[in-house]
Amino acid sequence: MRLPPHDSTCRNCGAPLPPDAAFCEQCGAAVAVRQTSVSSTCPTCGAILADGEAFCSECGTKCK
Ligand SMILES: [Zn+2]
Ligand SMILES: [Zn+2]
After folding, report:
1. For 7-59, how does the pLDDT look when each residue is reduced to its tens digit (9 = 90+)?
2. Is pLDDT at 4 greater than 50 in this prediction?
3. Relative to the alpha carbon of 27, which ligand is closest?
4. How many whole angstroms from 20 Cα to the centroid of ligand 2?
5. Which ligand is nearest to the CA of 61?
6. Measured in angstroms, how far is the CA atom of residue 55 from the centroid of ligand 1?
7. What is the three-state SS of 10-49?
8. CB–CB of 50/60 below 8 Å?
9. Tell me, what DSSP letter sits at residue 50?
10. Relative to the alpha carbon of 30, which ligand is closest?
11. C or N terminus of the chain, fewer CB within 10 Å?
12. How big is the chain by its Cα radius of gyration, in Å?
């Protein structure tokens, strides 16, 4: 039993996944995003916004 090189593995079949994979290459299951509870992204730069965040931490765009 060896650990995968990345922290992302398929929750369905356990296959190691590329860091930015959206679907498992082995079983096709949708891969959960590693960030916790992604609710929205910045319309300007696409950065992931934390829950309740009113301004983008990357570019400062007001997002609410
Ligand atoms: Zn899988
Ligand atoms: Zn932004």
Report:
1. 678 889 999 988 888 889 999 999 866 555 556 888 899 888 887 788 898 99
2. no
3. 1
4. 19
5. 2
6. 35
7. CCCCCCECCCCCCECCCCCCECCCCCCCCCEECCCCCCEE
8. no
9. P
10. 1
11. N
12. 15
